Amino acid sequence: MPYLADLERAGIPTVLIGFDDQDEFLKQEALTIGVPKLRYIHGSRTMRGPADVDSFLDSMFDGLTRPLTAEEKETGMWSPQEPRILFEGTLEEAEELYMQAEKLPGLLNATYARYTDGLPIVVPTEERVEAMLKGTSHDPKELITLHKDMEGYVAPEAIGSEPMMKKGDAVRYMPMRRTATVEQVAVNAVMAGCKPEYLPVVLAIAEASAGTGDGRDGQGFIVSGPIAEEIGMNFGFGLLGPGNPANKTIARTCNLMWRNLGGAIPTVTVTSNWGDNPAVNGGFCIAEYADGLPKEWKGLNEEYGYKKDESIIMTTHPGSFGMGQHFMPGVYRALQKDGHGAMARYLDVKGVPGPHNWLEYLSVGMWAAREGGVTLMMVPEMAQHLVDIGFKSKDDVYEWIWKKSFEPVKQYRMRGAPDFATNGWRSIERTSGKPWLELDPDYMVPAGGNSPRNNLVLICGGDEETCHRFGGGHGAAFSIDAWH
Amino acid sequence: MAEGRKIYKCLNPAGMQVPVNTFPLAPRLDSLDGKTIHLSICGEPDITIPLERKLKAEYTNINWTVKKTYGIDPNRISEEEMKTTDGTILGVCW
Predict the structure, then answer these.
(1) Is A130 helix (H, G, I), strand (E, B) or coil?
(2) Mean pLDDT calculated for residue range A217-243
(3) Beta A312-316 vs A220-224: how paired, if at all?
(4) Of residues A215 and B85, which shows the higher confidence score?
(5) Which end of chain A is least crowded, N or C, by CB within 10 Å?
(6) B4 vs B16 pLDDT, higher one
(7) pLDDT in tens, A346-373
(8) What is the average pLDDT across A121-148?
(9) Which residues, other chains included, contact A96 with Cβ-Cβ below 8 Å and sequence gap of 6+?
């Protein structure tokens, strides 16, 4: 829509075809781009195309020719101000205020929280926020900005962020394109139940746009580096489950930042049908088990240009958990110890002791539900087995997985998302350098993204021989230490 | 005084809305006859294919220009093209 604003400002009348259920969203978006009276008409989600066109054609032409109303000719400044102090009163009164919810027509009159994720919060009193701010040396009034240039979107599927951002650019929180200070991030961290020592992680997540979006929100974050252990994150048994304050409260802050920094309100400012990525519902922040890495492999921090003693967060967009063939830990042990069981039968190594390449088994059907890079969350023992059979670096694993994802063009063209990603198959296929539509149907192309580096290996978990995995690729790495 | 009765100042978790200069819409056209209208297509071929077909077949008094993408970021017209474009229709949604 910013394009339409540019055209209108240049004196070119425009009309937008949208859907009627997105009116509120379009109204908000038009306001934030500075053309609040942008004209739009409705297409149909269900009517057949020719009949649909007939139904809106008159209003479409009308949008270009109907004289402007007085309101449509207005200029002005939209500058809503939020007070720093939201409320003064007792804690009980404050709890009531912060936890208020209102009925939303777009949610079939279900209630939606004004300041929270729907759960009880810790009231962010001035004293508590001040205590939280002791977790960083940064000035409370400092704007959250990028610490380095970013080429490409800062996070996968981060619709709304600019594809090119420079060091020092203010991070804009979608959907309302707001900015935030260190203090405002700290307020949300208090509300989520974070401790001051978690704040640098939360601020790094805020620098990464905090998973906010206009509909395709819901990023997950992985911490790599010494801070994970220092603040007591769980990167072992049960790391995705309940009970760890750091994992849970840091992750929860993302939801609060999307609500409060970004101004997310479904059907009003965001279009997300499900509200969030199911895999990250309630927040998703886990950590790497650095001491569990095989000695030949690097942690995510070193992989992405930082030192071993530096801490970072990696942005991901977890989805499609459970991709590939499933196996129980005992089946895995049977394979590697003595060459028994289903995995041994599949790999045709019956009776042959391991280590064997278990990725051969896991990768069957890995891209059946979703193309693109995958993140493998593997326990140390399984990572060591990969090293022992020749994967001397994670890059070797990435390369192997990527090559495994190749499939014929005729199969790849049945996938839904590439209709968009290839611009209707009008673009150039990367491995061949040829237009998609000129490729032989049997030509092999990667379903696993454009590069082996779309993949990620995370060492974590307990001792049970399992490999969790999710699709969605990953984005950039952000320094946590920069926010100490 | 019990903690529950103490008065606290509580901070606002909302982000800051960057001030936006709001602009009027561009003047509308008196008529579409002889005008150059640009059709900026973003996906939704079920709508945009019959739309383009119908416009070009039945509204020959208008000079139609078209740019297409399957994605959500429209293919923009250039500064030069803007000089000769009288109006733009963008669909769907983005």
Answers:
(1) helix
(2) 93
(3) antiparallel
(4) B85
(5) C
(6) B16
(7) 999 999 999 999 999 999 999 998 899 9
(8) 97
(9) none
Task: Please check whether residue B11 touches A, CB under 8 A.
Answer: yes
Q: Cβ of A5 and B23 within 8 Å?
A: yes
* CA nearest to A394, candidates A454, A447, A456: A456
Q: Is the pLDDT assigned to residue A160 strictly greater than 50?
A: no
* Contact by Cβ (8 Å): A176, B15: yes
B34 touches chain A (CB under 8 A): no
A280-300 CB burial, b ≥16 within 10 A, e <16: beebbbbbbbbebbbeebbbb
Q: With 0-12 CB in 10 A as exposed, 13-18 as middle and 19+ as buried, what is B58?
A: exposed
Nearest CA in chain B to A74: B24
Q: How many CA within 13 A on the CB side of residue A329?
A: 10
pLDDT (tens digit per residue) in A18-57? 998 889 989 998 999 999 999 999 999 999 999 999 999 9
Say whether residue B2 is in contact with chain A using an 8 A CB cutoff.
no
Select the residue of A19, A78, A92 nearest B4 (Cβ to Cβ): A92
Stronger pLDDT, A25 or A7, i.e. the higher one = A7
Residue of B nearest to A271 (CA): B93
Of A10, A33, A124, the CB nearest to B82: A10
**Per-residue DSSP letter, B73:** S
Phi and psi, residue B89, nearest 5°: -115, 125
Rounded Cα distance between A345 and A194, Å, is: 48
> What is the phi/psi pair of residue A385, to 5°?
-60, -40
Closest to A370 in 3D by CA, of A431, A315, A424, A418:
A418
